[in-house]
Amino acid sequence: MTVRRVSGPITRPRRGMALEVVLLMLVMFSVIVLAGLSAVTTISRTSNADYRGARASYAAEGGADDVMSQLDAAMQDGIINGEDIAAIQRPEVTGYRMTQSTRTTGAPITRTITSGPFSGLYSLNQPIDIEVTARDTSGNRATTVLSVNAQTIPLFQFGVFYEGDLEVLPGAPMTFVGWVHTNGNLYVSSASATFQSNLTTPDSVFWQRKDRAERLNGVRINNEAGTPVLLDFDSRSHSNPQFKIRSQQRFNNRLMSGAHGVRPLKLPLPVNTPPITLVQPRLGTDNAMVQDVKMAWKADWYITVDASLFTATNDTTEMKDDFCDNIVQERSAGLALPSVAMCRKIFKPRRDAFYEGREDTRVAGVTTAVRPDLIDIHMDSLRIWSDSAPASRAPRILYINVINANAGDTRRDFVAVRLRQGAQLPKSRVSSDTGGLTVATDRPMYILGDYNTTIWRPAALISDAITFLSHPPNPNMDARTTWPSGTRCTGSSAGWCDVNQQVADQNTARPTTVNAALLAGHSATVADWMRAGGAQQYGGGLENFPRFLENWGGVTFRYTGSLVSLFTSQFATGLWGNNSGGNYYSAPTRQWSFDVNFRFPERLPPGTPSVGTVLQTAFRPLY
In this predicted model, what pLDDT tens digit does every residue of 136-189 receive, in sequence order? Predict the structure, then answer.
């Protein structure tokens, strides 16, 4: 047998190869699965963190809004001070620990408002930063910074400013220049009324009378180009978004309501203190904030008149002689008082001076008419005395306080102040100052003849109600033959004469001009006819806010200033349109406009009140 040797290794078939491949694939698949699970976990965790972070951001933003609402509430008194900021409460959001820091940034500055509903006016601006941080239980946190501006705006910058509802419903054609603002609703309807400036309200605009169902298609508002455009919509016909769109289309947003985010403008008074406080006399219980607002405390000449002086004697001459002996006068330190002799030339009482048709609310069978018991202030005598030594005599704010009036005594039932011969006002204390004079009282006020027309000075008239009496035939309102023919107070003479206004027959007025800001009470329409379910007594509206008593038909009353009403009249409560004693007046031809001098802070009347609001200026998150 032959044996063959074969050299080299012997190759055998390898067993288990398929298993290795399967295991390798399982390992690779596991790696892929684990990587996917890891990615999913990471994405889930990231999404959860983003979700929690977003929620924290929302909580911080909500907290900042809460702080701003607290500032807004504090601004209801017209100012933001250190005490208001210190009193800010930490916002509360369930599930988060909240912290807040609110601080002023820099000193207040006066500048023109460049954004928001009151853009174009100037104000005292206090920038404030609100920083709020929200942190949840897992450590997620977010911080938001809200920048706001506390704006304090002088009231007499407005052509018209009302605290309550404002009705502008003139029968005769009327064109008004100046910003119109009301904190209530705005009612407009007329066959011919044109507004050349902005109209704003935080509430609603109604193209409709308030007292009854009537709408006239003649209300126009100038757009940015100065073109008068008809009003054809209101807050009832257009919801908020549509109102904004229509206002932009028609007027370039020169008509703005609550739909635009307009906020109320408030006096700097304590919460729940009514605006009428501004005109009320001094009280020993007045706190510092009230004293800062009351014209009585701002006054550098404060006079208290005891109304019982009108009943002390029936002798007119004796009453006048005794008047200055019994009034109490207070002046700021270093300022002089007139002598008794000079006082008697400036201040003169006049009992039952004339028939007051608007206040005559007699019922049938009652024969006693309403006749004002006047404190006549002869502005010419005041000016002569003051100008002889203005540094120590010139008044800036004169306040007249009346005590012991008695509605049951006709000799002191309707005590009022009357300014006469006021065409030229006193000089300022220093020649470099524009000076000016504000006369204030919580009683009704009458203005006889032209006022502040010879040399323009900043002027304001502040009272319960203001009635204009036309320019008299002569300064004394008498019938002396020494006066030239046509200037005597006879039955046929035009112009105001007390002796000619003793009954309801209307005396014929003469053209009269007044240049002064007015702040007074008004007569309001109580309710909206649609909401009340029927027609209401008309309060008179803006066109009858300045009151009249004569036959002004075809006679022009020229007025330049600012019309402000923050309350309803408390003493002069006779309703517009009252004719219980006969028709008491016919409307004048109204030439009214805003005094553009008031656009400059240095030309505002002394003691000009201010109102305030809070506006958001910026928002940013901190990372």
Answer: 888 888 999 988 888 888 999 999 999 999 999 998 888 888 999 999 999 999
Q: Which of 170, 119, 138, 141 is nearest to 53 (CA)?
A: 141
3-state DSSP of 553-582: CCCEEEEEECEEECCECCCCCCCCCCCCCC
Helix spans in 294-336 (H): 295-298, 316-326
Map residue 619 onto helix, strand or coil: strand
Closest CA to 572 of 458, 422, 443, 478: 443
For the record, the structure tokens of 586 come out as: 């016919």
What would the DSSP string read from start to end of 11-49?
Answer: P-PPP-HHHHHHHHHHHHHHHHHHHHHHHHHHHHHHHHH
The CA-based diameter of the chain, rounded to the nearest angstrom, is 183
Please write down the HEC assignment for all residues of 425-487. Answer: CCCCCCCCCCCCEEEEECCCEEEEEEECCCCCCCEEEEECCEEEECCCCCCCCCCCCCCCCCC
Question: Look-up: residue for tokens 């053209």?
Answer: 511
Separation of alpha carbons 562 and 567, rounded Å: 16
CA distances from residue 113 to 110, 161, 433, 608 in whole angstroms, order as listed:
9, 18, 26, 19
Report CA 496 to chain centroid distance, whole Å: 33
Give the contacts of 486 (CB within 8 A, at least 6 positions apart). 473, 493
State pTM to two decimals: 0.83
Over residues 7-55, the pLDDT tens digits come to 555 555 555 677 777 677 777 877 676 766 666 565 555 556 567 778 8
Structure confidence at residue 441 (pLDDT) = 98
Which 3 state secondary structure label does DSSP give 493?
coil
Measured in Å, how far apart are the chain's first and last C-alpha atoms? 97
Residue 49, C-beta contacts closer than 8 angstroms, at least 6 positions apart? 140
Contact indicator for 163, 566 with CB cutoff of 8 Å = yes
CA distances from 178 to 188, 200, 255, 497, 550 (A): 16, 12, 13, 33, 27
Question: Which helix (H) or strand (E) covers residue 58, if one does?
Answer: helix 17-74
